[in-house]
User: Fold alcohol dehydrogenase from Roseococcus suduntuyensis.
Amino acid sequence: MRAWAVVENGKPLQEIELPTPEPQGDEVLLEVTHAGVCHSDLHIWEGEYDMGARGKLRMTDRGLKLPLAMGHEIVGKVLKWGPGAKGQGLKKGQVRLVFPWVGCGNCARCKRGEENMCAVQSRALGVYQNGGYATHVLATHWRHLIPIDGLDPALAATYACSGVTVYSAIRKLMPMGKKEPIVVVGAGGLGLQAIAVLAGMGHKRICAVDVDQGKLDAARAQGATETVLASGDDTAKRIIQACGGPVQGIIDLVNGSQSALAAFDALGKGGKLIQVGLFGGELRVPLPLMPIRAITMRGSYVGSLTELRELVGMAQKGKIPPIPVSTARLDEADAVLNRLREGKITGRTILTAS
Assistant:
């Protein structure tokens, strides 16, 4: 199979030939038709995370091996499957969304359907094994294939990461009244998806925060009821003003030092901050304020297979407004990554086989 792979961190992707996998056991081989380009791909490509005063966390220390075909938002056509998938309703040519957040498959968390939280061995597609920036991809289990009947496959691909990530984060904020403001920090692909999902869940007040006015305009078009242009040291004050007071729920899809501090300072008593982004840095807060204001800070990492199925079901019922999606060819993956790094993409760009 052909792949557009990271061969050396920080260097241009290279088109290479890799052995086409032969499915074993419960595995299913698919021909890739659509693959989303996600901001987390930039961290994998660059090879590290910013840990603030603790330095850098290198992807190789987390088990990443090169060369690697990235891409974890994958839609493809079923080609063949292992003997364990026989009798599970698979047919050649079926179009399926692939759940990429694969764990060891044997621990208690994996058996509960929480493979994204596996602490034994993460095997995420496009991170620890080859993903969608290739002509073929191997799904590790037939259960990870989700029908997307009635959906644009380019849009459906986004649900495997940006969609399920924000859906899982939103669930961690609940319960909240539909008229209580929820703040979404970052109005890129994840931010627009969060606004869409919140709207689909019937939420009435959504405040988007970003450093780019153009992205805030896109957030308004997506359904945000308030927007805040983040600049200087008074972002928290602007959030509070826009929302009519300190807020109870914030999802930080950037999660850098400045965004996290602004989010913390904007929280009201009993408020929750859900940290999702991987921008990096560190957060220093006055510890007495945590109990005095009864603040909750919680990380959220992608989502589970059950959550992805729920989200796709909502989309198939027409409950989730589509986000802006553009397409490019698979062989343009490197150029798309660079445009994403430069902040030139609104919504999501999906690589296609044609």
Summary: The first helix runs from residue 39 to 46. The longest strand covers residues 28-36.
